[in-house]
Design a protein that fits this description.
Blueprint (H helix, E strand, L loop, with lengths): L2 E5 L3 H12 L3 E5 L3 H5 L1 H15 L5 H9 L1 E4 L2 H5 L4 E4 L5 H14 L5 E4 L19 E6 L8 E5 L6 H13 L3 E5 L8 H17 L5 H12 L5 H8 L2 H7 L5 H14 L18
Parallel strand pairs: 1-2, 1-4, 2-3, 4-5, 5-6, 7-8
Antiparallel strand pairs: 6-7
Helix pairs in contact: 1-4, 3-4, 8-10, 8-12, 11-12
């Protein structure tokens, strides 16, 4: 599978696009407006610098070749016309994902395999909104995928085993370490471990137990971890924790979502990718 279409060019979507192109795939980058697409070159420059920092053999020539294999478009039909595999990275709301897959099913060729990168939602909740549930599954990435290169591949009850195996091979070709998940699990392996940890940190902060700086400092000093929970929030970007928390039944998590919106999102502090989140970045 050489032709990848990625739906959504946000923090993780743009990383999936660039990593696949870096590993030699031809990538169609789709988003909902020409204005968003026009900003992608800035994102590629940001990622090129990150690759040069973190990957020893990431020479300018190889990075420029990756960019040349990316085509951005706000035309979904154009983005899907030759897709061997489609990875969806749209906002973490079930209704948006379901409606997106319904549109994709009308436009994608019969050969296309469909993957959702949803971090918490189950693929079985989206598969009925496609015309090919046997070719639908989850393919989930950790943030900064060029460095933290797990690819969690999770089937749903109707996923064909051969399709599952094809996505495992595609993950390897993208430079990922495939993590095979044979039974649906909200949050896969990574987020089943990570989300309770982040929720505990946000709970401490919202209730005024400690500052976010001291929460991060405690975790890093006591465990030797390279990043604290609020540094992880900055890496993930503010929209994901906001979307995950705003409809929570837990009043503390709902308050966390409101603080994320008023203190950060409304002030353009979208996380590390924007230069500002809980912390300021050069």
């Amino acid at each position: 599978m050489q032709n990848l279409t990625v739906l959504g060019t946000g923090v993780l979507g743009s990383q999936i696009i660039f990593q696949a192109a870096y590993m030699g795939k031809h990538v169609e980058a789709y988003d909902i407006s020409d204005e968003i697409i026009a900003k992608l070159p800035d994102r590629w420059e940001y990622l090129k610098a990150a690759y040069k920092r973190d990957i020893p053999d990431a020479a300018d020539e190889k990075l420029d070749a990756a960019v040349s294999r990316i085509h951005g478009t706000a035309d979904m039909a154009e983005a899907l016309k030759d897709a061997d595999i489609v990875i969806e990275a749209v906002p973490e709301r079930l209704d948006i994902k379901q409606s997106t897959w319904k549109k994709v099913s009308d436009l994608a060729p019969a050969k296309s395999i469909f993957c959702t990168n949803s971090s918490t939602l189950l693929p079985s909740a989206m598969a009925p909104f496609t015309d090919r549930p046997e070719k639908f599954l989850s393919f989930h990435f950790a943030n900064e995928i060029w460095k933290f290169n797990t690819g969690e591949i999770m089937s749903q009850p109707q996923t064909d085993r051969d399709v599952f195996d094809q996505v495992v091979e595609f993950a390897k070709e993208m430079g990922m370490v495939p993590i095979k998940i044979h039974k649906e699990q909200p949050g896969y392996v990574l987020n089943s471990l990570l989300v309770p940890f982040l929720n505990a940190a946000s709970d401490l902060w919202v209730r005024g137990v400690a500052s976010f700086e001291d929460i991060d400092k405690t975790w890093k000093i006591a465990t030797g971890a390279p990043a604290g929970p609020f540094e992880i929030y900055d890496t993930v970007g503010m929209m994901t924790p906001y979307n995950l928390s705003k409809d929570s039944s837990d009043p503390v998590q709902k308050e966390f979502a409101e603080k994320i919106k008023t203190d950060f999102i409304d002030n353009g502090r979208m996380g590390k990718g924007s230069g500002h989140g809980f912390y300021d970045y050069e």
